[in-house]
Amino acid sequence: MRARDYAQQLIYKIIDSPVRGMIKIGITPNTVTTIGFLLNLVAAGIIVGGAFGDDAGNFSYLGWGGFLILFAGLFDMLDGQVARIGQMSSKFGAMFDSVLDRYSELVVLGGIIYYFMYYRYFLFGLIAIIALIGSMMVSYVRARAEGLGIECKGGFMQRPERVVLTGAGAWGCGIAYYFAPDASWVIWIFVVPLILVAFFSNITAFGRLNYSRKVMNNSK
Question: What pTM did the predictor assign?
Answer without folding.
Answer: 0.90
